[in-house]
Write a structure and sequence with these properties.
With about 120 residues, the protein is an alpha/beta fold. It is built from two helices and six strands, in the order βαβββββα. The strands form two sheets. It has a three-stranded parallel sheet with strand order 1-2-6, with no helix packed on it. Strands 3-4-5 form a three-stranded antiparallel sheet. Strand 4 and strand 5 form a beta hairpin.
Length: about 120
């Protein structure tokens, strides 16, 4: 397995309830580096190994959870995850992105202004 070079700068990863699946796996990999801090609210919790099955009739399909994910370092005091959210190092009062409505749901949303001010406060400490 290849090793990554250490990052010598502080890295902040923003999380919210829409952070899921591959993004959660990326956070687990990044948390190996002590320079990485997660901030925001807990993730979606799509942290499992799944496999799809299609019935012979092709009219029925199922996604089965067949395993758990293990983080190399503890995140929120745990290493084993099975559809459980990752808890950020710093939980914020405000969600990073306000809930999208209607057609805006599919578009990239800007960071919530109150969250941004809270983030700036944490980064200046």
């Amino acid at each position: 397995m290849a090793r990554c070079a250490a990052i010598h700068k502080q890295v902040v990863v923003i999380t919210d309830s829409r952070t899921g699946s591959a993004a959660e796996m990326t956070i687990m990999a990044l948390k190996r580096n002590p320079q990485v801090t997660t901030i925001g609210v807990p993730t979606a919790g799509y942290t499992s190994v799944n496999k799809g099955r299609v019935a012979k009739s092709k009219k029925t399909a199922a996604i089965l959870t067949i395993g758990t994910i293990t983080s190399p370092v503890k995140i929120g005091n745990q290493r084993h995850f099975n559809n459980e959210p990752l808890k950020p190092d710093l939980t914020t009062m405000y969600a990073p992105i306000s809930p999208a409505k209607g057609e805006q749901y599919q578009k990239q949303q800007p960071l919530d202004t109150d969250f941004w001010h809270e983030l700036e406060k944490h980064l200046s400490e």
